[in-house]
UniProtKB/TrEMBL annotation:
The active site is at 185 (proton donor/acceptor), 200 (nucleophile). PANTHER family: EXPORTED PROTEIN, L,D-TRANSPEPTIDASE. It comes from Streptomyces subrutilus. Residues 113-224 form the L,D-TPase catalytic domain. Gene3D superfamilies: L,D-transpeptidase catalytic domain-like, PGBD-like superfamily/PGBD. This is L,D-TPase catalytic domain-containing protein.
Amino acid sequence: MGTRMRAAAVFGGAVALALPLVVAGGGPAGAASCNLGTGPYQRQVEQFLGRPADGRQSAADCRAIRSFQSSHGITPTQGYAGPLTWQAMNTMLAQRAAGRTPNKAGHCPVNRGRIACVDLTRQLSWIQDGATLKYGPVPVRTGKDGTETRTGLKKIYHRSVDHWSTVYHVSMPYAQFFDGGIAFHSTAKSMWNPPGSGGCVNMRSADAKAYWNLLGKGEDVYVYGRKPGT
């Protein structure tokens, strides 16, 4: 190897050691690199994704984590097992654990007839009639830090099937308002997309449509708990 080539090789090695463990890789648009650093929630994230739970980042782990992040709009989409990624996964686990008994702890009133319940802690909603579950539970996306969905007993006071927000300039299909400008409505975003809404209870389209068909003006809504990260 010539002097110039040896110098280039040494310089290249020094740069590689100085840079973070990030490598180029294929993936979704806007995710041009993969972080090979071991994150603080590495083992938990690996377990959630069905990966070998050794607590050490690998290229395969990174690809799996990036795929999850891309699906739910978690940025930066670099495959790092950080707190935001684990928060989304942990919320999913809590939702799965609710099963068909979301009101097992009895937080949502059972003495008011038909009522839509919103649990901010688990990011879950369902409709019950007395103690009978009528629909759900389904994942929801509620207000972010600073624009939290307000808690308490409310009533649906206005409905607009094809609503347009003049505040956020976005479509709000199947909007059912129950607290000022706060409403149930559908969105195209993932229910686990951080940081959250401007206060509304975002739902998947099919769920928002079901709520539209099952609820009406004057129906009760009960919001309780606290969203993770708020």
